[in-house]
Amino acid sequence: xxxxxxxxxxxxxADHCNFLRNFCKRGHGGAAPRYTPRMxxxxxxxxxxxxxxxxxxQRQGVPAALAAWPGDTHCVFCNLLESARYAVGKGMAxxxxxxxxxxxxxxxxxxxxxxxYPYNSGHAMILPYAHTAEFGTLDxxxxxxxxxxxxxxxxxxxxxxxPEGINMGLNLGKAAGAGVTGxxxxxxxxxxxxxxxxxxxxxxxxxxxxxxxxxxxxLRQGLAQD
Length: 226
Known about the structure:
Radius of gyration: 23 Å
Order of helices and strands: HHHHEEEHEEHH
Structural class: alpha+beta
Oligomer: single chain
Strand order of the largest sheet: 1-2-3-5-4
Helix content: 40-55%
Distance between the termini: 74 Å
Strand content: 5-15%
CATH topology of the largest domain: HIT family, subunit A
CATH class of the largest domain: Alpha Beta
Shape: globular
CATH superfamily of the largest domain: HIT-like
Number of domains: 2
């Protein structure tokens, strides 16, 4: 009897799969298909260690070259800015400090920096200097400058990387996927068809053709030319 039940369950599962397959091919009642059972998933397991400790780690975001700064704001991005500011105050050239911090462009209210845990080459972020978590609370001139810089960065990415597409977005809050919840940051990264492959999914390894420093320098020069 148990064998009969097992066979019946397997047969039902097979029938269900066949129904979905045929439904997606022909559509319900002969109409065009309304959905597909496939879902593309961008796995990013290499980011887990960073995301899971971003709110608790000490002096997160302070580069080794700027470690002389003694403080801790308990914010990755504020630490980045403050350690660079401290180094310049101690005599380091501003460009050298920015390179150490992976800051690639500074404007009046916002700055651009490379993502230390990139999804792809050229993955950069646009951030306000002000420590704030909500886009809706930004002053109008800061929000406007962020959008201006987004346009500027998109142009640079398209010139330098010739991507097939670009992802741009804000993750506001932990439930929305933000690794750093207290300081909003606008992600922008170039994309290519098939850029998520077996190395990412099965090997928990991201294959990038250039170093973070090289990508940052290319974008720094590209932004300066815009």
